[in-house]
Every structure is written in C-alpha cells, then in structure tokens.
Request: fold
Amino acid sequence: MQSIRQEKPLNVRAKEWVSEQRYPIVFGSWVASMAIALGIVGRSPYLSAQQKLVQARVYAQGLTLAVLVASFALESNDLRAGKGRWETIKVLDPDDPEHKRLVDKKIHHEAYAGEDQWMGEWQRKRRVFEAQSNMLDAQERKMKERGHKTRDTNGSASQGDEAKNKGQKDDAKAS
Reply:
C-alpha cells in the first residue's frame, strides 16, 4: 500500500493528504493565524491588551473562515466525484436469486469508530415518537367509535361530538 502511494506524483499525494486531513488543517490554521495576528497586533502601542486580543481574534476568524470555505469546496468536489465520507459502490442485488445483477449502494466511511453513533440514537428517538403518535391516534379512533368526546388539536370538541352533545341537551330539556 505504501509503495503504491509513493508511485503517485507529489501533487496528487498532497491533494489526497489535504482532503483526508481537512478538519485538523482548519483547526491548525486558526491556531497559527491567532499566534501570527497576536504577534502583529501586539506591536501596536496604541491598543490595550484586551483590544489586541480582540483584534487578533477577528483576524484569525477571517482567515479561518476562508480556510473553511476552501474545505467546503473540497467536500463538494468529493461529493460530485462520489468520494469522501459517502461513497457509491456496486453490490450484488439481494433480491436477485441468481446473484447476477449489481445495484448501487451508498456506504459511509467513519473517520473513527463510533463517529456516527448519534445518528442511531436520533433514529431510535424518531421511531419511538412515531410509535407513540400512532398509539395516541389509535386510542382516539377507539374513543370516537365508542361515542366518547374527543379533542381536536386546538382543544375544542370535534363537530360530531358537538352535535351529539346538543341532542343530549335537547333530551334533557324535554324531560
């Protein structure tokens, strides 16, 4: 693997390295720009220490924003090329009993193990919410079938229930 990488030209290896290390590069550029800006602004005798720190932070943020924009450009190029964190690969079609057909499948590459654990948690919470919502809807349908009063989303009684209640009030007045 190392020998294959060594055979590539230096500019291709540099692009690959930058693409793989884009977020550490963003952080490193912020640290470096903060240090350089503090060195430059620190020479001014007319600014207080607090003003120097604020000025250095503003300069560092400007450079970091430019590096982030470049990183997003790399990410969009990877996305168009089908590389990066999400990649489209060909796999055997699981629905094909003869296993002769290939289908596209998107796979995700984690930078480190467990990077996307939060995604599973979010999906689990969404499924729980949908199950609870379906259960409440089923309970409300059962109550309507039994003739119980139900509430709309705004808290008022539904139309069918109002008509039923009016009929019950008329019966009570007649007695």
Remarks:
- The beta strands are 86-92, 102-108.
- The first helix runs from residue 2 to 7.
- The two ends are 94 Å apart (CA to CA).
